[in-house]
User: Which sequence fits this backbone?
């Protein structure tokens, strides 16, 4: 699984596990079919990351936007 290193404004670094998708539709389909809760985060353009709720929270702290309309 791909991992992305994210640093917050305080300089703290954390690696998060992501499933990258180039299409929001594909990311939403993956989340909908998952048996565990996941969030979609708008990664570095044009990629969307699907990740755990905890990793999505860290991405938000680091300035990445959670995509509205996530399916949980």
Assistant:
């Amino acid at each position: 699984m791909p991992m992305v290193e994210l640093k917050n404004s305080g300089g703290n670094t954390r690696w998060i596990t992501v499933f990258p998708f180039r299409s929001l539709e594909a990311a939403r389909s993956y989340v909908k079919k998952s048996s565990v809760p996941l969030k979609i985060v708008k990664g570095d353009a044009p990629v969307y990351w699907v990740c755990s709720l905890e990793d999505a929270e860290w991405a938000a702290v680091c300035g990445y936007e959670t995509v509205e309309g996530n399916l949980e």
About this structure: The longest strand covers residues 3-7. The chain has a mean pLDDT of 92. The two ends are 21 Å apart (CA to CA). The beta strands are 3-7, 13-17, 19-21, 38-42, 48-52, 65-66.
